[in-house]
Design brief:
The structure is a homohexamer of 245-residue chains.
Chain A: H1 11-20, H2 22-31, E1 43-44, E2 51-62, H3 70-74, H4 80-86, E3 93-97, H5 109-117, E4 122-125, E5 128-129, H6 132-135, E6 142-144, E7 146-147, E8 157-162, E9 166-168, E10 171-173, E11 178-182, E12 185-189, H7 194-201, H8 208-216, H9 221-224, H10 232-241
Parallel strand pairs in A: 2-3, 3-4, 4-6, 5-7
Antiparallel strand pairs in A: 1-6, 2-8, 2-11, 9-10, 11-12
Helix pairs in contact in A: 1-7, 2-7
Chain lengths: 245, 245, 245, 245, 245, 245
Amino acid sequence: MDIPEINRPARALVERLREMGAATVAGTLAHMGIRDPHMHGPVSWNKGKAIAGPALTLQFMPKREDLYGQNEYDDPEKQLHRHVLYKVQPGDVVVVDARGDLTAGVFGEMMLTYFKGRGGAGVVIDGVIRDWPHGQSLDLPMWIRGLTPNFHTQTGLMPFAVNVPIACGGVTVIPGDIIVADDDGAIVVPAALAERVLAEAKSHAEWEEFSKLKLLEGGDLRRYYPLHKDAQAEYEAWRKANPKK
Amino acid sequence: MDIPEINRPARALVERLREMGAATVAGTLAHMGIRDPHMHGPVSWNKGKAIAGPALTLQFMPKREDLYGQNEYDDPEKQLHRHVLYKVQPGDVVVVDARGDLTAGVFGEMMLTYFKGRGGAGVVIDGVIRDWPHGQSLDLPMWIRGLTPNFHTQTGLMPFAVNVPIACGGVTVIPGDIIVADDDGAIVVPAALAERVLAEAKSHAEWEEFSKLKLLEGGDLRRYYPLHKDAQAEYEAWRKANPKK
Amino acid sequence: MDIPEINRPARALVERLREMGAATVAGTLAHMGIRDPHMHGPVSWNKGKAIAGPALTLQFMPKREDLYGQNEYDDPEKQLHRHVLYKVQPGDVVVVDARGDLTAGVFGEMMLTYFKGRGGAGVVIDGVIRDWPHGQSLDLPMWIRGLTPNFHTQTGLMPFAVNVPIACGGVTVIPGDIIVADDDGAIVVPAALAERVLAEAKSHAEWEEFSKLKLLEGGDLRRYYPLHKDAQAEYEAWRKANPKK
Amino acid sequence: MDIPEINRPARALVERLREMGAATVAGTLAHMGIRDPHMHGPVSWNKGKAIAGPALTLQFMPKREDLYGQNEYDDPEKQLHRHVLYKVQPGDVVVVDARGDLTAGVFGEMMLTYFKGRGGAGVVIDGVIRDWPHGQSLDLPMWIRGLTPNFHTQTGLMPFAVNVPIACGGVTVIPGDIIVADDDGAIVVPAALAERVLAEAKSHAEWEEFSKLKLLEGGDLRRYYPLHKDAQAEYEAWRKANPKK
Amino acid sequence: MDIPEINRPARALVERLREMGAATVAGTLAHMGIRDPHMHGPVSWNKGKAIAGPALTLQFMPKREDLYGQNEYDDPEKQLHRHVLYKVQPGDVVVVDARGDLTAGVFGEMMLTYFKGRGGAGVVIDGVIRDWPHGQSLDLPMWIRGLTPNFHTQTGLMPFAVNVPIACGGVTVIPGDIIVADDDGAIVVPAALAERVLAEAKSHAEWEEFSKLKLLEGGDLRRYYPLHKDAQAEYEAWRKANPKK
Amino acid sequence: MDIPEINRPARALVERLREMGAATVAGTLAHMGIRDPHMHGPVSWNKGKAIAGPALTLQFMPKREDLYGQNEYDDPEKQLHRHVLYKVQPGDVVVVDARGDLTAGVFGEMMLTYFKGRGGAGVVIDGVIRDWPHGQSLDLPMWIRGLTPNFHTQTGLMPFAVNVPIACGGVTVIPGDIIVADDDGAIVVPAALAERVLAEAKSHAEWEEFSKLKLLEGGDLRRYYPLHKDAQAEYEAWRKANPKK
């Protein structure tokens, strides 16, 4: 099967996006003209994960009995959802358009195990997975809509294409785009804009650590967020006493 | 722009499917193993139309501001929704995956006028059209979800590909599949199964004309539908008196 | 098959409810403590019809392949949706819980023809029908959610019981309850409350004809609706000149 | 009751917006930065109407039994939905936030009659009306979600405020904004932008009449829409022979 | 009150289904022709539970004020939701059709306490429960849609029947069917098919333990899942060294 | 900016409502005629919290580009969502009508920090928040619909008014109403009814502690809940041995 390859960004760039977090990256993209990069629907399933990585894509289509049949059931190598996994390199994110379907489990324990074994960073699925009681010990970062005991061709979907542009959670994903995901959700950073996101966002928020402390003590929002010029000296004194790590 | 061509079935075959109507074709497909060929969502907008024809497809994707921009606005020839229309031949049906979006008008008056001028049979859109007050005089067969005054890139969609496999109303459509549509809705007949549909369905219902008459007079459903052997002679007598036209 | 019979109310009572119309009956029921008798979802499909009649009920359930199978396909007399029709007497209304499903056509042309032949008043279906291009000439009063070319067991439903209590459009319907339906929608009048509805509603609105005329001429709402005592003499003069027909 | 008045725009301005139609106005607003002025949900109920006029607003809120009670039932003058009607002047449009509720009829026959008697242009309701069988003869332009026999406080809503900012169909409406509505739907033109809309849109489309004719004859979309410079001479010749009316 | 009894399957059979888990049982049922046994909507509320047991059923219907009233409020023994609990034996599962309603709490702390006291295995509710802050210490296995502080007749539902066929989450449940539920969800095993499910599924997956290990180390999916004949010897050597427990 | 103040109830009253819990308060309100005080949609995000306090309200409206613009972006003091926070006093609850929108984050880490610093009891939002990875350490009681990385004006909402009546989760909230929230959900207690709620509910359930114990041991529901007169002596003996704390 002839699956397109993707271009992978420099690992350092990806890592810096991960550290920024989905909220800061989404806000920066918004100011650059990308209105809504958030893939709505899939939610963080293992709380506390934060990943970033290039997107491999898997497209499901509504099942058609004349197009998916005995051949695929008999020969696992004809099953397209395996092929996206064959392409996984360490740090990759698999993004799946499962059409928001809640009845068809996209991956089960064995596929997720293989994905983890290859070093995959995580999966984002506009749909559900199955076999969670066995798969959860993998502790794999996942953004999904839920769970089902059904396998995917059991109800209404069939895997249809790998590494083609897809829509996931209302956002177009081009293979090679960078996914940034944490508990806030998973967003799409167009590959060509990634460097600029870092540049636009970098001067942000040196005083935020200080402001947060003050606000938690009941400090005035008008004084501390954003930092008012009247509080600049106070901040600088504090910073001297509390140097950045 | 390099748009794939489609293979068109013999016109006679298409015409016979049209005459059978969507309900009989859908039932026949179901007995052949195609569970649900009905594109749910789009409904007959000009009541009383019945069409059939090969599918040209247009795929919309969620709008991404870095992928659809000033170039497309400045140069209409970059706008992909025009290109599906350039491919239209008499009798063709344009099927559009507009993702069920109710805010983005897929075609307006001028595009629909051009489509009609080229002899298009009708359109099936999992979405909405705009400019209906001007476009309705075209009396074009349309299966759509509704209307909006908005144009398509105004809100959340951008045209993305032409004559690729799409999902429309929960059914996968391959370019060249045959669409059969009437007031019951629009269905997809896989091109490779079309001849067989005709063969499987052809012996249907010579006595239905008679049965319907009898049922309307209050005749017993057990006797007349399906035609019971006790009523066979009665039917034959009636048929002799009322030869088929 | 052992299908329960229903008790039918006096025809005159039913006719008076029909004349009152769904809005007045619903409002009266509300004042009697029945919060919402309106079956939401099914809408008037042939505009301008107004019917009333006792309910026969048909319950669909999610299809289970071990419970609905070859037996039913081979022997139409095992198909339960036929049995509700066998019970129809002139003026009856068939109410169907099809679970709001939009993919499974409850009745087609032949069933509806038989229903009309038996003198049925109309059908209310929390679901869809099929074969409308052939069936529409029956001009049968119908409150439905829409149309499909699919037959009912093709996708997700199976007929399960006849003349049992059902829910239709969010309202519980007991066989024998009186259905009142017009373009506003279809409502359920509990059989035991029907007489009282007539009694509570009867003194309504002798002056409404006059008020409507005045309002249409730009008359003051405060004076004419409800009729203010200052306008009583004016009304009476008008009534004398325009005796009730 | 102290209901704010609205400022009404010049009638000529409103009339020109009406003639442009919702699609052209929405497109013009989009180019001016208003992304989506279309009130989604309410649809044209009496096909073929086209209106424009300043908005009076009526806000419903979820019914609270401690806030809406016997007082309002006993004294119609306490019922706020009457008060928006008292403010109607010829050409006005009443826009109602009924929260998309499909169970609570906002207006019935008498209220709509009074509205028409005062010269109201039409109503836009993110909800439903009741008593349509009696009210339809008014032939009033209405954009609504549907019908019910229920009155509004029967289920979940209560009228709450008049001529305050509301949201209707996902668009914020400020009293005095100009509503433009036709079969495509109803849109909101911010009062302060109305003149600019006319200015931006006015040079539009002198050649469209010609192009439409050509397209309907099978003319090339690339040549006629938008009008190509190669077709300019052809157009001018045609125009000379077919002067604008 | 005359509530039907159910037939209970052998405990050993139930226990083996529980051990297989919902995903394996659902997949086996699918191969036997049961397309989708998963009750969609209710989700595992106390993560990590896995139960199986015969179904007692409780049916709610839309509340009708003339059918549920002071009698039921005054005499708890008239409240049908209590009666399904009276029938509970150790290991039973109560399945409730609460129509997907999110506003009406089906059970509260006391009912759930009684259920646990009788040895009930768990509950599956297409709806919500109330009083969770007090009830959660019971640590009862529950598959539900969510929580509410409301009791059930407070809003739109009334308990209507016990141990009748119901639909729950889009699946028909016959009293006595076997429910298998874990974090993937809750499924319905038709009682008559239970033995066959065990028979069809039993030869499954002796090598899966080995394959999973290999995949987690980055082993080739093509070699290890399903186990390729080239890896058979490797597996057997491993198995010899790691005998099954 | 001129933001209305609210009246705050006595802290002791609020505290007693908190102790009763949402379920008992909702049930009591229902018996007093308030059908459904539960704000549906927002769910308990940090399990195990139980709060009560007077409501400050924040209303979002659909974003209109002519009404929310550069002024608000440039001058934080023009951003209305800050102003509701300025009004917070210890024990207050901020209730936000974010229209159920899942794409627009209402508050982020800094706003929530300030809210906590001022002693706010918790927030109820018919919408989502952002920046949860940073904000979660605040351990703030929150009832929300979910999370997003987007900020609120990034997509479709703008803050519009503070301390005005709002609808949240289908319930009307008047500033100063008392919110009671725990894992069952958040409910609205009309300020004027709060004392009466305490009075009506106070005699409740002295024997419930005993009954719960008995039910958990398998005791008969008919005997112990509600407590039957035959069990009165048993209860009293138990109570003597287990005096209330």
